[in-house]
Write a structure and sequence with these properties.
Number of strands: 13
CATH class: Alpha Beta
Bound molecules: adenosine-5'-diphosphate
CATH architecture: 3-Layer(aba) Sandwich
Shape: globular
Strand order of the largest sheet: 5-4-1-8-9-10-11-12-13
Oligomer: single chain
Number of domains: 1
CATH superfamily: Ribokinase
Structural class: alpha/beta
Helix content: 25-40%
């Protein structure tokens, strides 16, 4: 049972040749309304891979909540634990993408930022000890920590995406409660002071993450690859795959990096749920992330299982 606890946004995306600078007004080549928010994106990424998934989170009671609920249903995500909060605004993300696939994003968190203990209770209602729970940091930190405590107390697997890193960083408790964290380059630098750019710097960053109490770390290096590290296994037996390793990037034509990390995390959860070891799951996830960059949009960019399997076999 895969469960996502996190944000739901509506993405208003403008496609431009170049990103605007302050004071500049540009005409977009095109615009698009889509489902986004790291919580919704990760839930859709799981569903597109064919696994059942429940999204626990919050929307407002505006027209965008209906759009989001329709989109989630179309993608096959259960919205039975999604709360429509009265008098709140559904999260909105205003995104500009340029011809090189780079982007700027402004998020108005809305209902996501009003999440509280009642949302944690809704999450707890759908957790079991064999749940794999996906969380991100687009909701209030105290709510995230309360949810992480519930998941950890049950013995569930918690994949925490420290994205975006909260302004004051993350407390050591978050590192201890998470089974696994998946920071990208900038998040890794924020959390450890080490900017990972190759396998060696990624290994040093992973050690810094372990030293704060994190059991398993996956350091995402964007187009440069991924480093995984499991601190719970001091032995060097190959029984459960290698303890540490570097996964080289899949070669794809990237046009839009939005939600690559979310598709990575959704893929990671699906692979772990299928019993893959950390090395195999990281490789599967990297294929999902790579494929997501070949398509525009957030939820709309999530690859299917057939697409991932054909890239893995190539
Ligand atoms: P985030 O979206 O969180 O910033 P990344 O940019 O690191 O995360 O992307 C997540 C993952 O997607 C990467 O670790 C990698 O596996 C894959 N990926 C992203 N960009 C590319 C790319 N240009 N080529 C191949 N794989 C990519």
């Amino acid at each position: 049972p895969l469960v996502v606890f996190g944000s739901v946004n509506i993405d208003m995306v403008a496609r431009l040749h170049t990103l605007p600078v302050p004071g500049e007004t540009l005409h977009a080549q095109g615009a698009h309304l889509g489902l986004g928010g790291k919580g919704a994106n990760q839930a859709v990424a799981v569903a597109r891979l064919g696994a059942p998934v429940t999204l626990a989170g919050r929307m407002g009671d505006d027209m965008f909540a209906g759009f989001a609920a329709d989109a989630l249903r179309r993608f096959g995500v259960s919205d039975s634990h999604l709360f429509r909060a009265p008098a709140q605004m559904t999260g909105l993300a205003m995104i500009c993408t340029d011809a090189a696939g780079e982007n700027t994003i402004v998020v108005a968190g809305g209902a996501n930022l009003a999440m509280d203990d009642t949302d944690v209770a809704r999450l707890a209602a759908c957790l079991t000890p064999d749940s794999i729970v996906l969380m991100q940091c687009e909701i209030p930190l105290p709510v995230l920590l309360a949810a992480a405590r519930r998941a950890a107390a049950l013995g569930a697997t918690l994949i925490l995406d420290p994205a975006p890193v909260p302004p004051g960083g993350l407390p050591d408790e978050a590192f201890r409660l998470a089974t696994l964290m998946t920071p990208n380059e900038t998040e890794t630098e924020r959390l450890t002071g080490i900017r990972p750019h190759d396998p060696d710097s990624a290994r040093r960053a992973a050690h810094a993450l372990h030293s704060r109490g994190l059991r398993q770390a996956i350091v995402k290096l964007g187009a440069q690859g991924v480093f995984f590290s499991d601190d719970t296994r001091q032995d060097d037996t190959r029984q459960n795959g290698p303890r540490q390793g570097f996964v080289r990037p899949f070669r794809v034509t990237a046009i839009d990096s939005v939600a690559a990390g979310d598709c990575f995390n959704g893929g990671l959860a699906v692979a772990l749920a299928r019993g893959q070891d950390l090395a195999a799951a990281t490789r599967f996830a990297a294929a999902c992330g790579a494929l997501a960059t070949t398509r525009k949009g957030a939820s709309d960019a999530a690859p299917t299982l057939a697409e991932v399997e054909s890239l893995l076999a190539a």
